[in-house]
Design brief:
Elements lengths: L4 H22 L8 H29 L7 H32 L4 H32 L3 H18 L12 H9 L12 E4 L2 E4 L1 H27 L3 H13 L1 H8 L9 H17 L8 H21 L3 H6 L1
Antiparallel strand pairs: 1-2
């Protein structure tokens, strides 16, 4: 990777600058994120992702001439990977809604939890993509294991109901934290730690953060193999993942109150995971073109959203 190391450095500087702007300006004081603010930041992150995507489409092979991908393939691979990761992040949002409700996290502190949670997610995804790419390069057959896992995950997701397995008290990281740190009874503003009578204590907000981090790790076990089903180019896999994760917080505050509207989205995600699983399993016999994969992803997402809005299940109609 020596010939394009500056690409990585430049992108990491960009990510660091955006996080610094968010932390230094928009998180200077804790506040409840309005729908207008969330919509604005959602548009910003999606627009930045598409501008970056356009740059890859126009200049990829000129920048990385040793790559096996041409400009068109690189642009389509980023777009497909980004859409998969962004759509899977919607499933994260539903779990975050349940977690914040379970722990009764005040709305004013949720943005802070998600900020640090996503920072941790970026580090974890970076490590997992690096390790995954190295394994695939050395042991190509591991792609078939990823494919089988994704197919199994897609089937299980189609059969499960949202939130039924969410039980934070069984989280091993949460149990460990409770053994290591004394915990305050109530939230202490937006602090993760406080000192009481010379004793350093963790607040419930830290427990929420730990559960969010571990939850994202579980979701990464699905999303990272799904990205490798689209491309094994580490830079495209990483950047598409990062853009989707960076847009997750604003998407949460935009969609949190209407998650139940998308009744069929989980089924759509299950179909997408199953599709990319099959794509990986048959890659040795037939390579499904990236454009076909992209078309399937867009079509499934569009149908699941439209069906959720216009033909909701009977129980959802009664709810409304």
């Amino acid at each position: 990777m020596p010939e394009n190391i500056w690409l990585w450095i430049g992108f990491l500087i960009f990510v660091g600058a955006m996080l610094a702007i968010d932390l230094g300006i928009f998180q200077r004081s804790s506040h409840v994120v309005s729908a207008r603010e969330a919509a604005g930041w959602t548009i910003v992150w999606v627009a930045l992702a598409f501008v970056f995507n356009l740059g890859l489409y126009l200049f990829w092979h000129q920048i990385v001439p040793t790559s096996d991908l041409n400009n068109r393939e690189a642009g389509l691979a980023f777009l497909a990977a980004y859409l998969i990761e962004y759509s899977l992040s919607v499933d994260n949002i539903f779990v975050f809604v349940l977690l914040f409700s379970y722990f009764a996290v005040p709305a004013i502190y949720q943005h802070r939890v998600l900020f640090w949670g996503i920072l941790g997610a970026l580090l974890m995804r970076g490590i997992m993509i690096t390790v995954g790419a190295a394994l695939i390069e050395r042991f190509h057959w591991i792609l078939y294991l990823f494919g089988a896992f994704l197919l199994y995950t897609g089937i299980q997701l189609a059969r499960s109901n949202h939130g039924e397995e969410v039980n934070p008290d069984k989280n091993p990281l949460l149990r460990l934290a409770r053994r290591v740190f004394p915990i305050t009874e109530d939230y202490e503003g937006d602090k993760f730690f406080v000192v009481r009578q010379g004793v350093r204590m963790a607040t419930p907000l830290l427990l929420v953060l730990l559960v969010v981090e571990s939850t994202d790790l579980v979701f990464a076990l699905d999303s990272i193999p799904a990205i490798f089903a689209i491309t094994t180019e580490p830079y495209i896999a990483f950047t598409s993942n990062v853009f989707a994760i960076l847009g997750l917080r604003s998407l949460y505050f935009l969609l949190a109150n209407m998650m139940r509207t998308f009744s069929y989205l989980q089924l759509g995600l299950a179909i997408i995971l199953s599709f990319v699983g099959v794509k990986m399993l048959i890659a040795g016999f037939y390579e499904i073109p990236i454009l076909v994969s992209l078309a399937v992803i867009v079509l499934v997402l569009a149908i699941s959203v439209i069906a959720s809005i216009y033909w909701p299940p009977a129980q959802e109609q009664e709810h409304h």
